[in-house]
């Protein structure tokens, strides 16, 4: 890889991180994808890359048997990279314009029933401050449908529990308001009043202080929540792989099953496109069919 390629890679990373405000995970993934492409190019000038060369690269990576999702991301990385180069007038034409992503296999998201949610929550030990904090977190995830990264980023200035509201910042720093149930609200309030100070006695409650903290007083990271859920699932005999995101799926599925408008669910989830929310209507339909087949005497 030549020096000019290294320079453009660094500039591209700054572009998607600062100007496009991509998530940390996406910045790392896209940067890694472009690095792999530039290494494959070797000493070839990035300005001389054509559509056939990109097609050759895509043929080359097929030998690694990446999933459709990974392949689609690598193509998205290339398209974003060359849009950036074209915008910066580094290249006169965009060789990635005709490159299309493979169609992804549509899979229904995993979700939990209300009974399964209660099984998980009731098996979460609350005999320690950290245990109570984790219970408050899972109650909040199920009540609001927020992403685990959004929950981890919560500061006190984002809470408006008197109105049962929380301000969150989703992908691309998009701001939205999520609603909190009375049950989840009580767990969060009790955590703040008691458990939080037992986790770290000098914990501050200033506007820019993190709501959920670890034993050193720093912001609780998403990985810690994943570990807590994993420990609970080892005790609960459920034939499902439960992650923090499953609580988000369960939230959306339950709303639609109870008659919530699709646009309302889209707003609460922070989806930029209604198509991302529509998958939950398929989940609800599957549940409907199962109930029909079990209950109707002529279903089979």
> And the CATH topology of the largest domain?
hpI Integrase, Chain A
Residue-averaged pLDDT: 88
| Helical residue percent band | 55-70%
Largest sheet: 3 strands, antiparallel
What is the name of the CATH class of the largest domain? Mainly Alpha
Q: Please give the number of β-strands.
A: 3
> Shape, please?
globular
CATH architecture of the largest domain: Orthogonal Bundle
* Count of individual helical segments: 12
Number of domains: 2
Radius of gyration: 23 Å
**Residue ranges: pLDDT <50 for 5 or more in a row?**
none
Q: Cα distance, first to last residue? A: 63 Å
The amount of beta strand, in percent, is: under 5%
- The assigned structural class equals mainly alpha
What is this structure's SSE topology?
Layout lengths: L2 H17 L4 H18 L9 H11 L6 H20 L26 H9 L6 H16 L3 H5 L6 E2 L4 E5 L5 E5 L2 H18 L22 H12 L10 H14 L4 H8 L4 H22 L5
Antiparallel strand pairs: 1-2, 2-3
Task: Summarize it.
The chain has helices spanning 3-19, 24-41, 51-61, 68-87, 114-122, 129-144, 148-152, 182-199, 222-233, 244-257, 262-269, 274-295, and strands at 159-160, 165-169, 175-179. By secondary structure, it is mainly alpha-helical. The termini are far apart.
Features:
300 residues; mainly alpha; DNA polymerase, domain 1; hpI Integrase, Chain A; 2 domains; 12 helices
Summarize the structure in words.
The chain is mainly alpha-helical. It has 2 domains: 3-87, Tyrosine recombinase, N-terminal domain (DNA polymerase, domain 1, Orthogonal Bundle); 114-294, Intergrase catalytic core (hpI Integrase, Chain A, Orthogonal Bundle). It has 12 helices and 3 strands, in the order αααααααβββααααα. The chain has a 3-stranded antiparallel β-sheet. Helix 1 packs antiparallel against helix 2 (24-41), helix 2 (24-41) packs across helix 4 and helix 10 (244-257) crosses helix 12 (274-295). It is globular. It starts with a helix and ends in a 5-residue tail after the last helix. 27% of the residues are buried. The mean pLDDT is 88.
């Amino acid at each position: 890889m030549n020096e000019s390629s290294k320079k453009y890679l660094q500039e591209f990373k700054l572009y998607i991180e600062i100007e496009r405000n991509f998530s940390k995970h996406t910045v790392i993934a896209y940067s890694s994808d472009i690095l792999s492409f530039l290494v494959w190019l070797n000493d070839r000038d990035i300005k001389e890359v054509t559509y056939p060369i990109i097609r050759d690269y895509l043929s080359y990576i097929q030998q690694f048997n990446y999933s459709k999702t990974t392949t689609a991301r690598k193509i998205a990385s290339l398209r974003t990279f060359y849009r950036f180069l074209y915008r910066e007038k580094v290249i006169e034409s965009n060789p990635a314009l005709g490159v299309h992503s493979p169609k992804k296999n549509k899979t229904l998201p995993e979700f939990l029933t209300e009974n399964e949610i209660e099984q998980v929550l009731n098996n979460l030990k609350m005999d320690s401050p950290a245990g109570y904090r984790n219970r408050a977190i899972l109650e909040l995830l199920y009540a609001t449908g927020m992403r685990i990264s959004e929950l981890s980023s919560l500061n006190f200035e984002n809470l408006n529990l008197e109105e049962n509201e929380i301000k969150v910042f989703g992908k691309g720093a998009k701001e939205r308001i999520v609603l909190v149930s009375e049950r989840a609200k009580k767990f969060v309030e009790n955590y703040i009043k008691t458990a939080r100070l037992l986790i770290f006695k000098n914990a501050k409650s200033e506007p820019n202080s993190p709501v959920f903290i670890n034993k050193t007083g720093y912001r609780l990271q998403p990985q810690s929540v994943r570990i807590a859920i994993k420990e609970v699932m080892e005790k609960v005999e459920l034939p499902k792989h439960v992650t923090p995101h499953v609580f988000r799926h369960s939230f959306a599925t339950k709303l639609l099953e109870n008659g919530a408008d699709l646009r309302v669910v889209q707003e609460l989830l922070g989806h930029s496109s209604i198509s991302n929310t529509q998958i939950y209507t398929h989940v609800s339909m599957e549940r409907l069919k199962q109930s029909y087949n079990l209950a109707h005497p002529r279903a089979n």
